[in-house]
């Protein structure tokens, strides 16, 4: 599967609109940002499931009449394409709302079944001028286990109810028959009903706010401002891509611990090539699709937007829109690979792959920029705590847990972050809503990769069961393969899961697994992974290492071993002459660093691939 960049850019054809003055364009941008925030707050305040209202796994985006993003978080996905397959544009009416979650029909616009999309068209002067799109991760849609997705799933049917594009609201009237069928397939229909109505309300409010903008500024002004913003973002990412990427070939391979079913590891491969002004991304050397649920339906638009998102940082005043895909001319994907699996492969735990794919985009660019990128970030963690209440009913707590993010060329990585704007459950919330007790929530010392700038640290989370019996599923990655460091920085720490640590019943639990049993009083401890470091650890200011030791981010042993900083264990004062001597000794015995580090230093994907095949044969 190969897709080419359009000459007229992802923003579409030029319709010859007159230029809009800068003040008006800024007012429209501000209105879009305000509308997005308002509609997302509607979701947060009216949704019923904790994954949406507490963890904030939701978003609202605006699309133009061609389905290209005006502003939002669709990341290059073709949100409208599958809707038009079933409902041609001329059949769409004012007051309609469309709903789907099928990753295969949508060609990766939705990447696993819990992510639901609702779309409302915007009519102005008798024609569709835009679409509004609300999105969130839903609590349960049926499937093999409470929570739907999980490590043990082997086909998409295990991941819960598949909803092809349907018209859930027809000219203002709810399609009650379809709605009742979908609700009936959830273990928690009240939560699904509340969440879906929150998403519908947000899409409809977004439609109202966008219509107000068209009324206020006029049809031609709005359409012209939208197109100019899309073109400005496209021009930025294209210009930066050509500035930053020299001619040549750059490749990287990253690794997933296992599929959740068997113990063999999987990998994907990216090669970025530039010839003249033509830039190609080739993924065809990636492994075949997995037998478990770590497959990811990548689209050319999504991969282009991952690169565009990196270049967008150079002018964040521009809107995040369809222009992000313009950095890459051509994307090659191989059907049947882990990045383009064939039906009916399971996709529920695709975050193991796409999170590392986002980091791999930076790794490719590291080769083109001599390491001037953020280091690898750990895959965020989800745990499915399942337990029976006093009435014998199964409860579900889907718990997102923070990890460490990669260090940057100018600063340490972020500690204890879940992902983007998502949040971790407060301990008080978990204990109030579920028969669980969070007994510890702390930083994992030494989990951040050593470097001139330290990688972000992961966390320790202790959860004890207060119900009689339960099971739990673990979506924990980076247990075998840590994150990579860059520009001399070292790889991050790995993850680990232990039941009843420090007792006679202590038991190591497979980090990516399901159907683990526990009973009243059992405690599960999760250590999450850290981000990679940036720059040579021997160049980190000794006083920063000392601060990290005092704050619990780095141990005395790691300060000496990785940073060469000698600290008195009693006074915690730095021995400056001893530090200078120790660093000279480490530098002499270690030799020069290389561009990347995971288990050891390496410069190329082939170099590491050979080492991994030798030490982790599959």
Question: What does this 3D model show about the protein?
Answer:
With 618 residues, the protein is an alpha+beta fold. Helices cover 29% and strands 22% of the residues. The protein has 13 helices and 24 strands. Strands 3-2-6-5-4-7-8 form a seven-stranded antiparallel sheet. It has a five-stranded mixed sheet with strand order 1-12-11-10-9. Helix 7 links the parallel strand 11 (278-282) and strand 12 (330-332). The protein is globular, with a radius of gyration of 25 Å. Residues 6-14 have low confidence and may be disordered.
Set down the secondary structure blueprint:
Blueprint: E1 2-4, H1 22-46, H2 50-53, E2 58-64, E3 69-71, H3 81-86, E4 97-100, E5 115-124, E6 127-137, E7 166-170, E8 173-174, H4 176-184, H5 189-217, H6 219-244, E9 248-256, E10 266-275, E11 278-282, H7 300-312, E12 330-332, H8 351-369, E13 381-388, E14 394-401, H9 427-433, E15 436-443, E16 459-465, E17 469-475, E18 485-486, E19 496-499, E20 507-508, E21 512-519, E22 523-527, H10 542-551, H11 556-563, H12 576-590, E23 596-597, E24 601-602, H13 605-615
Parallel strand pairs: 11-12
Antiparallel strand pairs: 1-12, 2-3, 2-6, 4-5, 4-7, 5-6, 7-8, 9-10, 10-11, 13-14, 13-17, 15-16, 16-22, 17-21, 18-23, 19-20, 19-22, 23-24
Largest sheet: 7 strands, antiparallel
Helix content: 25-40%
Query: Strand share of the residues?
Result: 15-25%
Number of helices: 13
Cα-atom radius of gyration: 25 Å
Derived from helix and strand composition plus strand pairing, the structural class reads: alpha+beta
Quaternary structure annotation: single chain
In one word, what is the shape? globular
Strand order of the largest sheet: 3-2-6-5-4-7-8
Which residues form runs of ≥5 with pLDDT under 50? Answer: 6-14
Residue-averaged pLDDT: 95
State the end-to-end CA separation: 28 Å
How many strand elements?
Answer: 24
């Amino acid at each position: 599967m190969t897709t080419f960049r359009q000459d007229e850019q992802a923003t579409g054809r030029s319709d010859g609109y007159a230029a809009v003055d800068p003040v008006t364009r800024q007012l429209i941008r501000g209105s879009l940002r305000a509308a997005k925030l308002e509609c997302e707050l509607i979701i947060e305040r009216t949704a019923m499931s904790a994954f949406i209202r507490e963890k904030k796994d939701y978003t609202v985006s605006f699309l133009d009449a061609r389905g290209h993003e005006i502003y939002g978080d669709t990341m290059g996905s073709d949100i409208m394409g599958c809707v038009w397959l079933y409902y041609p544009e001329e059949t769409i009416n004012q007051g309609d709302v469309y709903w789907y979650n099928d990753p295969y029909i949508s060609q990766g616009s939705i990447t696993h079944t819990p992510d639901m999309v609702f779309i409302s068209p915007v009519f102005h002067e008798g024609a569709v001028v835009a679409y509004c799109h609300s999105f969130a991760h839903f609590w349960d849609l049926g499937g093999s286990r409470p929570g739907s997705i999980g490590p043990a799933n082997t086909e998409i049917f295990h991941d819960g109810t598949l909803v092809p594009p349907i018209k859930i609201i027809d000219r203002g009237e709810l399609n009650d028959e379809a709605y009742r069928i979908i609700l009936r397939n959830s273990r928690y229909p009240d939560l699904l009903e509340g969440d879906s109505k929150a998403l519908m309300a947000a899409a409809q409010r977004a439609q109202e706010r966008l219509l107000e903008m068209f009324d206020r500024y006029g049809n031609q002004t709005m359409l012209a401002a939208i197109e100019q913003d899309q073109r400005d973002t496209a021009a930025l990412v294209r210009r930066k891509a050509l500035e930053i990427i020299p001619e040549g070939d750059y490749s990287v391979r990253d690794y997933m611990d296992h599929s959740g079913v068997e113990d063999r590891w999987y990998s994907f491969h990216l090669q970025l090539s530039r010839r003249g002004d033509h830039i190609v991304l080739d993924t065809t050397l990636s492994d075949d699709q997995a037998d478990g649920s770590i497959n990811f339906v990548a689209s050319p638009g999504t991969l282009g937007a991952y690169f565009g998102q990196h270049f967008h940082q150079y002018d964040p005043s521009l809107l995040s829109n369809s222009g992000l895909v313009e950095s890459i001319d051509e994307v090659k994907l191989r059907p049947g690979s882990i990045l383009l699996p064939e039906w009916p492969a399971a996709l529920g735990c695709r975050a193991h792959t796409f999170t590392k794919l986002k980091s791999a985009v930076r790794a490719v660019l590291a080769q083109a920029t001599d390491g001037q990128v953020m280091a690898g970030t750990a895959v965020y963690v989800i745990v499915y705590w399942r337990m029976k209440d006093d009435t014998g009913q199964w409860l579900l707590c889907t718990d997102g847990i923070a990890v460490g993010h990669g260090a940057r060329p100018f600063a340490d990585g972020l500690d204890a972050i879940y992902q983007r704007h998502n949040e971790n459950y407060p301990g008080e919330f978990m204990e109030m809503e579920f028969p669980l007790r969070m007994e510890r929530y702390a930083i994992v010392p030494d989990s951040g990769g050593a470097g001139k700038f330290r990688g972000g640290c992961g966390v320790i989370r202790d959860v004890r069961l207060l119900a009689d019996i339960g099971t739990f599923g673990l979506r924990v990655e980076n247990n075998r393969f840590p994150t990579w460091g860059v520009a001399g920085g070292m790889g991050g720490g790995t993850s680990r899961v232990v039941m009843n640590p420090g007792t006679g019943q202590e038991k190591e639990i497979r980090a990516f697994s399901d159907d683990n049993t526990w009973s009243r009083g059992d405690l599960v401890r999760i250590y999450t992974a850290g981000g990679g470091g940036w720059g040579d650890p021997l160049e980190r200011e000794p006083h920063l290492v000392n601060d990290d030791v005092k704050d619990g981010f780095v141990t005395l042993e790691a300060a000496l071993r990785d940073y060469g900083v000698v600290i008195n264990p009693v006074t915690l004062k730095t021995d400056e002459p001893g530090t200078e001597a120790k660093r000279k000794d480490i530098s002499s015995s270690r030799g020069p660093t290389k561009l990347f580090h995971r288990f050891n230093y390496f410069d190329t994907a082939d170099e590491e691939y050979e080492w991994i095949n030798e030490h982790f044969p599959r």
